[in-house]
Fold this sequence. Notes:
This protein has helices at 2-43, 47-53, 70-80; strands at 54-61, 67-69, 88-99, 102-115, 118-134, 137-147. It is an alpha+beta fold and 154 residues long. It has one domain: Nuclear Transport Factor 2, Chain: A (Roll), CATH 3.10.450. Strands 2-1-6-5-4-3 form a 6-stranded mixed β-sheet. Helix 1 (2-43) runs antiparallel to helix 2 and helix 2 runs antiparallel to helix 3 (70-80).
Amino acid sequence: MKRAAIMTACLCLVVLMAAFASAQSSDEQQVRAAEQSLAQAESRNDSAPVKAMLATDWVTVTPDGRVLQKDEIVNSIAEHEGQMKPYVVELADLKVVVAGQNAFCTFIREYHGTMGEAKDKVARQSVVHVFAKSTGTWKLHYERAQPIPDKGNP
């Protein structure tokens, strides 16, 4: 009888751990999808999905050290909708850590495209994002982007 109780307790623990891992995996997948959606919206200069994914208190520290709020970035994107040629935003080495209702992401963001006179210009940034889950939805609260210098220009 005692052995059956121990086996049942162990089985319940395994089921709970599997359920937690599944929820964790689902949250990680949702955050990864949000990152890809943000990159696509940015490359199309589409402010609506960006506005929807950013938390009201979102803040970013840009590669040149400026601090911007949500309205500033959304308005800036909206100003250029349909005016700028689309470019490609790629995310490399995306790592996501989910800790309860928060998720922390690190990745390399690469911009490819024509910028001014430069053809096939590539700009690279090291990025940190902090998401929080509220009412079942992941919202981006913080971004820090740091330029990665070209290998030839330390």
